[in-house]
Amino acid sequence: MNRKTLQALAKERVKDAKALLGRKRWAAAYYLAGYAVECGLKACVLRHIDATGMIFKEAKYLKRLAGCWTHDLVELVELAGLTATLGQATQADPQFYTNWVQVKDWSETSRYATVGEQKARELFAAITDNPHGVLRWLQDHW
After folding, report:
1. What is the mean pLDDT of residues 38-62?
2. In the chain, is it the N or the C terminus that has fewer CB atoms within a 10 Å radius of its CB?
3. Helix (H, G, I), strand (E, B) or coil at 81
4. pTM of the model
């Protein structure tokens, strides 16, 4: 899996989530919308590795990189070297902060959950809001 593939997957999963919202498939839309963010963050991890050579600079990073198999969005932000950047973005843009708070607690276990319309639509909006959405921010860093 390369960076371009992950970027394309993120965009496709957003389209899939939108289609599912249109079909009132709330839980599936919720899951795929969050999965789009996961794919985007994994693209950011690959960019970080390429741009910094981090795997050769810091032995501990290489061990932590095994965590890239995670679905935890906050952990992926850290692995992508974006923690400080995210902090700055959330401080500078209250709407982005609100959107990030909405998105950060998504979990891959949501695929087993019953999710209603409001929660699905809120997550989708937090991800796709332009210019304050999480996907827009990810695209600036992937």
Report:
1. 90
2. N
3. coil
4. 0.94
